[in-house]
Amino acid sequence: MKIDREHIQNLVAILETHRFDPEFHQAEYKALLTLKHIDSQMQKGWVFVPHELTAENGAKYALIGEFKEQQSIPCEYCDPKDDDQEKCELCKGTGEHTREIPVSWYNIKKIYAKAIELFTGAKANEHPTD
User: Fold this and answer.
1) Burial class of 26 by CB neighbour count within 10 A (0 to 12, 13 to 18, 19+)
2) How far apart are CA 88 and CA 122, in angstroms?
3) Spatial separation of the C-alpha atoms in residues 112 and 50, rounded to whole Å
4) pTM value > 0.90
5) What confidence tens digit (pLDDT) does each residue in 29-50 have?
6) N or C: which end of the chain has fewer CB within 10 A?
């Protein structure tokens, strides 16, 4: 479920209308203050995200294969002892070429956990789950 500023503002309006009811408890008042704070942070450009990435919250599907890194590997078609490597179409005579490999799901979660730690000061799960 996606919650945006409009949802937050609607909840604030609902709680504001009932604030003076005798049935309005301290928990509801705390919720109102929290929602007002969330709304003010969203106005400043902040967003609210899950504490960790999981398959259940849709992150795995959305991010798997999205990020790639370059890896330099020796050219499998060239012989390093051969002086005539310039003819190789793959490496153009350098003896190595680069390939793109996807960033692993484990590494994506570790990077995300570090970002969460940076902004919240709280350590994310040391061993993220799948």
Assistant:
1) exposed
2) 52
3) 10
4) no
5) 666 667 777 767 666 766 677 8
6) N
